[in-house]
Design goal:
The protein has 152 residues and is mainly alpha-helical. It has six helices and no strands.
Length: 152
């Protein structure tokens, strides 16, 4: 490709001494996609790793007289139903967790950019804990719109 035109998805270079303009701060579809994908993968693995423990917890709460403890519940479930017994009910949890974590990661990156822009902070690394907490609160606010239908 020749010429000096840049595609919309390329990073916009800026002077490190000068904070990026408000438009530069929001223009990062690749970063948003990476954050979205990272959150989805993390949310998926969290469910896949923790679902057997959640299943054991629910079985022990529902049928306390059948099990002497968590280990006993896990062993009996494995013997009776195999891996399917430990992963019962995974699809709804997987769907909700992937949606929640993907949107949280994406909106957190976006909200960090908004906080940076409002405060004229050139890099996310320069934000204080309070500023990052504000970005996290904003991410949770936006995520609640995606998560509420799955919780009902």
């Amino acid at each position: 490709m020749h010429g000096s035109s840049k595609s919309r998805t390329e990073a916009v270079p800026h002077d490190p001494e000068k904070p990026p303009s408000r438009m530069e701060a929001y223009r990062s579809p690749i970063t948003a996609g990476i954050n979205l994908f990272s959150g989805a993968v993390g949310g998926g693995f969290a469910v896949l790793l923790c679902q057997p423990l959640d299943t054991i917890k629910v079985k022990m709460q529902t049928y306390p007289q059948l099990y002497s403890g968590a280990y006993n519940c896990g062993v009996l479930t494995w013997k009776r139903q195999g891996i399917r017994g430990l992963y019962a009910g995974t699809v709804p949890s997987l769907t909700a967790n992937i949606l929640e974590n993907a949107s949280l990661f994406m909106f957190y990156g976006f909200c960090q950019k908004v906080v940076q822009s409002v405060l004229n902070v050139p890099r996310a690394e320069d934000l204080t804990t309070f500023h990052n907490a504000c970005a996290g609160g904003g991410a949770a606010f936006f995520t609640s719109f995606f998560l509420c239908p799955t919780e009902l």
